[in-house]
From TrEMBL:
Keywords: DNA-binding, Transcription, Transcription regulation. This is LysR family transcriptional regulator. Belongs to the LysR transcriptional regulatory family. It comes from the Bacteria. It comes from Rhizobium mayense.
Length: 299
C-alpha cells in the first residue's frame, strides 16, 4: 500500500463498476482528467495495468479483477471505519424516532418501549404509526431510527431482529352469510360486498395493496382497529391479523373463512434499522433491549 491512496482506489472502483472514466467522474462528482490521472498513477505504483482500454468500454484485466476484489473489501472497511467514527462522535441522543407498523401487536411493543423509557429517562421516544409502505419509507428517508414492521429481509439496507410471525386471515361478520360454512364462501359471494382495506401512509412511494379482490367495491380506513369495527358492524369484510380477532372468532361474531379461494397469509414481524447509518448510544441500547426481550412478542 506504499503511496496508494483511498482516493485512487475509489476512482479505480468507480471506473471498474461504471465501465468508463466519464461515468466514474460523474458518480464521484470529479473531473474526467482527475479520475484518469488517479487510475494511471495507481497502475504506475502497482507496476501493471488494471484496465484494458482497447475497446469501447474499459474492462478489467485479469490482474485488475483480482486487485479490484481486494480494493472493494478495503473500501468497505474504510466506509465502516468512518461510520464507526461518526458513532463515537455522537453524544447521547435526546430523542429516538420509532415507527410502529399497522400489523404490529401494540401491547407487547408499547410495554417494551415503556420499560426502555423508564430505564432511559433522558431519551424521549417519538412514536409514529404508519401502514403498509409507510414504515419502510420513513426508514429509507432517514425519518426513523427504528421500525416495528415486516421487511424484505434480502434488502441490504436493513439490519433486523426477528420478533414473531403474524397470521392474516379473511374475516366477515357472522350475520352476513348465516347459511354458509366458511369453506363455502367464494369470490362470487363477495363480489357485490364492500372490502375494507388499510390506507397506505407512504407519501411518495408507489401505493401497495394486499389481498384485494379485483372489481369489488371497497372502503379504506387508517388502522386495524377501525377496520375490525367496520367488519364487526357488517359494513365490509377483509383480512385481519389473527391476534386482533381471535376472541371475536371464538365468540362467533366473526367468521374466519380461510379456504381454497382465500388462503390468508403470514408475515414476519421484525425490528429494523438502517445498516448504513451511525447509531448513537441510546439507539444501540434500545436495539440490545429489543434483542434481549424477543420472547415478549411470541403469540
Amino acid at each position: 500500500m506504499n503511496g496508494i491512496t483511498l482516493q485512487q482506489l475509489k476512482c479505480f472502483d468507480a471506473v471498474a463498476t461504471e465501465g468508463s472514466f466519464q461515468a466514474a467522474a460523474d458518480r464521484l462528482l470529479r473531473t474526467h482528467p482527475t479520475v484518469v490521472a488517479a487510475v494511471r498513477n495507481l497502475e504506475v505504483q502497482l507496476g501493471f495495468p488494471l484496465l484494458d482500454r482497447s475497446g469501447y468500454r474499459v474492462v478489467l484485466t485479469e490482474r485488475g479483477r483480482a486487485f479490484h476484489a481486494r480494493a472493494q473489501n478495503l473500501l468497505r472497511q474504510a466506509d465502516g471505519l468512518g461510520t464507526f467514527g461518526k458513532q463515537l462522535a455522537m453524544g447521547e441522543e435526546t430523542a429516538l424516532r420509532v415507527v410502529i407498523g399497522d400489523l404490529c401487536p401494540l401491547e407487547p411493543t408499547l410495554q417494551c418501549l415503556r420499560n426502555f423509557s423508564t430505564d432511559n429517562p433522558a431519551t424521549r421516544l417519538d412514536l409514529y404509526f404508519e401502514a403498509i409502505s409507510g414504515p419502510w419509507e420513513r426508514l429509507a428517508d432517514d425519518e426513523a431510527d427504528l421500525i416495528f414492521h415486516h421487511i424484505d429481509k434480502s434488502d441490504p439496507l436493513f439490519d433486523y431482529i426477528d420478533l414473531s410471525s403474524v397470521d392474516l386471515v379473511p374475516v366477515i361478520a357472522a350475520v352476513v352469510f348465516p347459511a354458509l360454512l366458511p369453506e363455502q364462501i367464494t369470490p362470487t359471494h363477495l363480489q357485490d360486498l364492500v372490502q375494507c382495506i388499510i390506507r397506505d401512509t407512504a407519501r411518495h412511494s408507489p401505493p401497495k395493496d394486499y389481498y384485494v379482490l379485483r372489481g369489488a367495491r371497497y372502503l379504506t380506513v387508517s388502522d386495524q382497529l377501525m377496520k375490525k369495527q367496520v367488519i364487526l358492524n357488517a359494513m365490509g369484510w377483509g383480512h385481519m391479523p389473527r391476534f386482533l380477532v381471535e376472541e371475536e372468532i371464538r365468540q362467533g361474531l366473526l367468521i374466519d373463512f380461510t379456504n381454497v379461494d382465500f388462503k390468508g397469509g403470514r408475515v414476519d414481524l421484525v425490528a429494523a434499522r438502517r445498516r448504513d447509518r451511525p447509531h448513537g448510544p441510546a439507539a444501540d441500547r434500545l436495539w440490545r433491549y429489543i434483542a434481549a426481550h424477543i420472547g415478549r412478542w411470541t403469540p
